Amino acid sequence: MTSHDRPTTDAEGGPDAPAGPTPEPGDRTDADNRQVTEAALFEAFGGVRGMVETVVPGLLFVTIFTINKDLHTSAIAALAVALVLAAVRLVRRDTVKHAFSGVFGVVFGVVFAMMTGNAKDFYLPGMLYTLGLSLAYMITTAAGVPLIGLILGPVFKENLSWRTRNPGRKKAYAKASWAWGLILFAKCAILFPLYWWADTTQLGWILIALKIPPFLLAVYLTWVFLAKAPPPIDVFAEMEAKEQAEKEAEERRRGEREVLDGVAGDLYQGMASEVAAEAADERPRRARHRR
């Protein structure tokens, strides 16, 4: 169960995320769109460091098991290095999503292997997770809501606007989701027969060999599809602009009310002064009339 079988949605920047401002959608050229797509994918999939954190625990497990055939030593070493990688992230206050997903994957693998006593079961949870994820990509795409769009929408700050307002982008997400689903399914089609027929070391080394290349292929195809798609609609910027417009409109209405109140006050004071002056003129006339 690896973090690189699935993109994440955390938009929080980390040391692996490329720096630099994101252009507004209306101002993007094709080069800008490619750059924004690269930055978003780099952030979502964890970059080189995320790949290392995904591969190292499994690599350590199969290496130790190949040498001494000791399940307990191999499992403890894999779990220890996964925890160390997560701890380093915590100490440095980096984004920990990839490291923790690796820890969880190793924990499930260790539990399965310890319960059954079969070292091959260390890999089984990740294989089942990959199979389920490949089916999720294909089923959601067939249903018209491609999973990669649900995952990357918040990263691009477009949320679900691509579903109804950006058909070109929806089509690109559908292509990318089919790519992820089929690539992961092909990976499972290789690994599951090996789980039954190969020994632990053979399965482990082939799984390590298949860890990164399918992932890179899926990310590359996602980049190709999205780089050619229309730019995302920044719904967060739209909401901020709407709130700002409403605030400015309210300030204008408040200013108009203040002006009208001031005019009304001046009219009232003027009318009051005229009434008071007329009353003052009327009193002497009444006094003379009584005499």
From TrEMBL:
- This protein's record includes keyword Transmembrane: yes
User: Which keywords accompany this UniProt record?
Assistant: Membrane, Transmembrane, Transmembrane helix
**Entry's Pfam families?**
DUF3159
Disordered: annotated span:
1-31
Transmembrane ranges?
Answer: 71-91, 98-115, 135-156, 177-197, 203-226
Keyword Membrane assigned to the entry: answer is yes
Listed name of the protein: DUF3159 domain-containing protein
Q: Can you name the source organism?
A: Streptomyces mooreae
Task: State the organism's lineage.
Answer: Bacteria, Bacillati, Actinomycetota, Actinomycetes, Kitasatosporales
